[in-house]
Amino acid sequence: MHYKTLFFSNRIDSVGFLSGVFVNQVAEESREKVWKMFDQISPKYDLVNHLLSFGIDKYWRRQLIHHLPKGEDVRLLDLATGTGDQLITIVKNAKQVNTALGLDMSLEMIRRGQRKIIDKPYAHQITLMEGDATAINLLEESVECVTMSFGIRNVTDVDKCLEECFRVLTPCGRVMILEFSLPRNRIIRGLHLFYLRHVLPNLAGWISRNRKAYQYLNNTVESFPYGEAFCDKIKKAGFYRVKSYPLTFGIATLYVGEKLPCGTDL
Ligand SMILES: C[S@@+](CC[C@H](N)C(=O)[O-])C[C@H]1O[C@@H](n2cnc3c(N)ncnc32)[C@H](O)[C@@H]1O
Questions:
Q1: Topology of 18-181+225-258 in CATH?
Q2: Mutation test residue for ligand 1: of 15, 38, 103, the one with most atoms within 8 Å of CB
Q3: 204 lines ligand 1 (CB under 6 A)
Q4: Total-model pTM
């Protein structure tokens, strides 16, 4: 792994460690279990993702590329980066992204990510490190783009995380958040809920040997705000021109916002 002293500044050397999961009701003592949960499911995390989304997750991740800031030398921060799939997709396909930093609280997830990129030609562009999305160890206005895929519903304080995204972005910078949502169509929604509640936890649990973890993760999909409700949260953090792009019947949604209203291509 090529570690670089990057633009991301010297504040990165002692990153604040873990806080937990998004659900407010989750008590302090169980938060630790949630982050451990990602360590536990890390060996099969990628496999479960690709298998149980029928590979559609790769398509969802590619959608972010269309909304990246234009220009050269875009510095990108990927929060809750996990094993780095979102970040890798972007660096491989978007020439304007020169340097990318991925932060996550789960060391096991990060280690898996590092192993994936270590021998790749783009390895020198990527740094994966331990870090908290609700207390980002970067200076103000450090990056042109912040991405976060399937991570926001796992943080303890969603508003704080969005405020942090705003803080570290340069003026005209963009935040892009990809997260699960629920389809509006009642029939598709019903089918999807059946899959979420009954099929996915069993299959994912069988593959990862951790049914509880996937049951928990699926429950958070149902309780997390999406569509306009989540756009409002992004706006509350200070972002302009916030838009949501439902993907695959609304099973996932991509949210994009700007730090200041810039350009016309959002
Ligand atoms: C569902 S995974 C998503 C991983 C990756 N972004 C992807 O698209 O596959 C959620 C990740 O959020 C991380 N996480 C949870 N709370 C976090 C926080 N406060 N700061 C950073 N990462 C966090 C977990 O460790 C886990 O790796």
A1: Rossmann fold (3.40.50)
A2: 38
A3: no
A4: 0.88
Per-residue model confidence as pLDDT tens for the chain (266 residues): 333 334 443 333 222 222 222 223 333 434 455 677 899 899 888 988 888 888 899 999 999 999 999 888 999 999 999 999 999 999 999 999 999 999 999 999 999 999 999 999 999 999 999 999 999 999 999 999 999 999 999 998 999 999 999 999 999 999 999 999 999 999 999 999 999 999 988 888 888 888 888 888 888 899 999 999 999 999 999 999 999 999 999 999 999 999 987 875 66
What residue has token string 């928990």? 216
Walk across the sheet containing 74-79 and list its strands: 126-130, 97-104, 74-79, 143-149, 169-180, 252-258, 240-247
144 ligand 1 Cβ < 6 A: no
- What residues does each domain of the chain span? 18-181+225-258
Query: What's the half-sphere exposure (Cβ side, CA atoms, 13 Å) at 214?
Result: 24
